[in-house]
Design brief:
Elements: E1 6-7, E2 12-17, H1 37-45, E3 51-56, E4 77-80, E5 83-86, E6 112-116, H2 139-145, E7 150-156, H3 158-171, E8 175-184, H4 191-202, E9 205-207, E10 212-213
Parallel strand pairs: 1-10, 2-3, 2-7, 3-6, 7-8, 8-9
Antiparallel strand pairs: 4-5
Length: 214
């Protein structure tokens, strides 16, 4: 994790990943200490001219839900058309309170809310691609069209949606910087170790929020 000061530039973008009720305490897929990221993200967002929010937005009966696979329990793995898929508790179902952004998240200048995971037969961790690694969300084109080159990421969960988004950003040619203290991990199986190895392999940088200057 770099400790060097990083100046926030006008052409940087902050990507705030899935800060939703179901990923916080009392939610259907609560990330340990998930709500703790909110005050820090609110503060960090003030340093950026450009902020994008993402939102998990699943239909009922989504393929990634363990409840749609008879005999399977949450956090087990299932075989789907695009390979192995971790099966989750039902979460972030469209138009439910669990899918709503946390009410204390206060980023009034956010320019875009990108919803993902809304196709019933495919999950989406990354903000750039769904889990088949082919179906694009359109975010890369949006960032390129607006001439953003450096993407900062924070939110939930560090070892899934934050991490996959950062790795895809690098593979698409963007600089990717994960603000680690403004993220929290699920840490199921070896997910945390795996994502940090992927960060090293792809050139994703991790930082603490205290190195950001503007």
């Amino acid at each position: 994790m770099t400790s060097s000061a990083i100046d926030v530039r006008p052409d940087d973008v902050l990507l705030v990943i899935d800060v939703q009720n179901d990923f916080c305490s009392g939610g259907k897929l609560a990330v340990p200490d998930g709500e703790a990221v909110v005050p820090l993200i609110n503060r960090i967002a003030g340093s950026f001219e450009h902020v994008i929010l993402t939102q998990d937005w699943h239909p009922a009966g989504h393929l990634s839900f363990a409840s749609t696979h008879p005999g399977k329990a949450p956090f087990e793995s299932g075989d789907v058309s695009y390979g192995k898929q971790t099966l989750w508790p039902d979460h972030c179902v469209q138009k439910t309170s669990g899918a709503e952004l946390v009410s204390s998240l206060h980023i009034p200048k956010a320019e875009l809310i990108l919803r993902k995971g809304f196709r019933k037969e495919i999950d989406s961790y990354s903000a750039f691609f769904e889990n088949d690694r082919k179906t694009s969300t359109g975010l890369a084109g949006y960032l390129s069209e607006r001439q953003f080159r450096r993407v900062f990421l924070a939110g939930l969960a560090y070892d899934f949606c934050v991490g996959f988004s950062a790795i895809d950003a690098r593979r698409l040619g963007f600089e990717a910087i994960v603000i680690k203290d403004a993220s929290r991990a699920i840490d199921t199986g070896d997910s945390l170790e795996t994502i940090e190895k992927e960060f090293q392999d792809t050139g994703v940088v991790t930082i603490s929020s205290n190195v950001l200057t503007n």
